[in-house]
Amino acid sequence: MRAKLSPFFLLILLLNSCAQIKHLDNHDRNRDVNITSSNPEKNGYAVSAALSKGFNKTDRIDTLDRDGAWCWFADPRALYHKGMKEQTYFSWVTGTGDIVIASYNHQTGEYKKNTLFERLQADDHANPTIFIRKDGKIILFYSKHFDKVMRYRISMNAEDVSSFGTEKSFGNNVTYPYPFQLGDDIVIFYRGDTDWHPAMAVSHNNGETFEKPVKFITGGGQRPYTRYAQDPTGAIHVAFTTGHPRNEPSNKIYYVCYKKGKFYKADGSLIKDFGDGANPLNIDTNDAETAYNASNGKGWIWDITVDSLHKPVMVFATFPQDTDHRYHYARWTGTEWYQKQLTTAGKWFPQTPAGVTEPEPNYSGGISLDYDDPSQIYLSKQVKGVFEIMKFSTPDGGATWDSTVITRNTPSGLINVRPVVPRHHKKGFFDVLWMRGTYIFYTNYHTSIVFQADSLKTSFNRIELNPETLSLSKGTTSQLNVKFYPAFSSADKTLSWSSSDENVATVINGVVTGVSAGKTTIAATTSIGKAASESVNVLAPE
After folding, report:
1. How is domain 462-539 classified at the CATH fold level?
2. Which of 88, 199, 226, 508 would bridge 240 by S-S if both were Cys, CB 3.0 to 4.6 A apart?
3. What's the maximum distance between 2 C-alpha atoms anywhere in the chain?
4. C-alpha span between 1 and 359 (Å, rounded)
5. Which residue, among 76, 80, 34, 26, has the nearest Cα to 55 in the 3D structure?
């Protein structure tokens, strides 16, 4: 059963980017803000917050969708792609298990959303991942939590989320899809097989079919958790754990580089040949190098990418105690793994019911790297008992850090968790997205997908009236429908209506009434001057 919540007046305070805070745990600063909020609907909470006129820049928090969630071991969940169109793509799973993909066109402001599978599984592990082929067609991969197969569908047209082909499948017992382009092949990594270990499958025909999957990593605990990143040379950088921190008291974090069928250490030395998959990386034989040795408590990987020199950078959580989560930054310097604790993060974020022992005490609020700029990190930490989003930045490879508050004073009944930066994102557009709402368990969540964007136009680019033309008889009425682009804009949707000839037809709140035979033009105009109109033909009675 989903938790029932009374409506909250949603409060979010967003500091502008110049307000950097040196003392990480002392960031409670007074700011004058204007806050607007819409009423909660059945699923999720919509929110918008803008800085007041006293600031030279207007940053915003807005709602992408009222019903969405994701885990953090399947990616990309969001990405920016400039082909024939310039678009940012998003994917998520709803509270009822629907698999959703959406796109925002940066040129037109059009926002499209498509549900590809209804009620697959109400479990945040089922979130889909997005892959864009060389020809621009989109592949969406998705599966249940421990599903029998990996499912996927290919878009009918390039860079268009509105229609997809029939569902295809491969694999066994799969979770966490993670696709990459390797030369002419598409390679997807995931957790699967009978022992829940990382596996991979290859397609030589642009994703139309995949070969039999092979195990990628073996050994360790029951289920190693894995994150992947690809550098410009095609190499895949992999960070993974011994297993689940709930089951492994000494849960280490390892690193390996995979390139052209071989495994390498961070210094470039060869570990072994993977070949056709007959010789996977073995944790138990110390094939992988240790990036974190569990000296500060058991660990859990959160993200990995590479710097400008193609050297790996990762962020992870450690747990001296289950109630004491800490975020760490690590990068390969060329000779060693440099590590630094960024900040304490509080305890687990699931809102554990009274009298219940939390089943996932190592679920941190979340920390993510900017895939293309690892000097920028977004994280969720507990502040005054509530999980808030912050941005951390380093000018010197992790030696010193500044922080910026993104959310604050969130009501105690809500959380802000699992931030993600869209792959290759356009600076200032969907800089970070996260889940906001309530979360009891990975099968019981009630969250929206919200985002921060410095430059995104939150007003309407355009509006449309439907139908495009209207015919009605004298004395009858017809309702005109309005579409706003982008659909998620929080701008005022109040419209003023007019008829060019009220002797032919009148209009009130979009309801057109025929007065006498003839033609007129009905127009709708927003408070910011965006307008749409259409021709109306009134027919004389027979």
Report:
1. Immunoglobulin-like (2.60.40)
2. 226
3. 89
4. 17
5. 34
C-alpha 239/C-alpha 227 separation (Å) is: 5
Whole-number Å distance between alpha carbons of 273 and 262: 4
pLDDT at res. 455: 56
Residues 113, 142: contact at Cβ < 8 Å? Answer: no
Confidence bin at 267 (pLDDT 50/70/90): very high
CA angle 225, 230, 231 (to 5 degrees): 140
Which residues contact residue 220 at a Cβ distance below 8 angstroms, ignoring those fewer than 6 apart?
Answer: 197, 241, 242, 243, 283, 284
pLDDT single digits (tens) 325-370: 999 999 999 999 999 999 999 999 999 999 999 999 999 999 999 9
Report yes or no: 113 and 126 within 8 Å, Cβ to Cβ: no
For 195, other C-beta atoms within 10 Å of its C-beta total: 14
Q: For residue 196, which of 235, 240, 152 has the smallest C-alpha distance?
A: 240
Residues found in the chain: 542
CB-CB neighbours of 20 under 10 Å:
16
Whole-Å CA distances, 515 to 389, 471, 502, 503, 539? 56, 12, 8, 6, 9
The helix/strand/coil state of 281 is: strand
Tally Cβ neighbours within 10 Å of residue 210: 21
**Mapping DSSP to helix (H, G, I), strand (E, B) and coil, where does residue 232 land?**
coil
The burial class, CB within 10 Å (0-12 / 13-18 / 19+), for 182 is middle
Residue 191: closest CA among 247, 235, 145, 230: 145
**For the chain, domain boundaries:** 33-453, 462-539
How far is C-alpha 540 from the geometric centre of its chain's CA atoms? 54
- Stated as kind and residue range, the H or E segment containing 369 is strand 367-370
Contact by Cβ (8 Å): 278, 251: no
For residue 408 the two structure tokens come to 């604050």
pTM for the complete prediction? 0.81
The answer to whether 275 and 262 have CB atoms below 8 angstroms apart is no
Residues 6+ apart with CB under 8 A from 540: 473, 474, 516, 517
What's the rounded Cα separation, in Å, for the pair 301 and 115? Answer: 30
Q: Compute how many other C-beta atoms are within 10 angstroms of the C-beta atom of residue 165.
A: 13
Class of 33-453 in CATH = mainly beta
Q: What pLDDT shows up at residue 15?
A: 30
User: Cα–Cα distance between 338 and 239 in angstroms, integer?
Assistant: 15
In tens, the pLDDT along 81-112 reads: 999 999 999 999 999 999 999 999 988 888 89
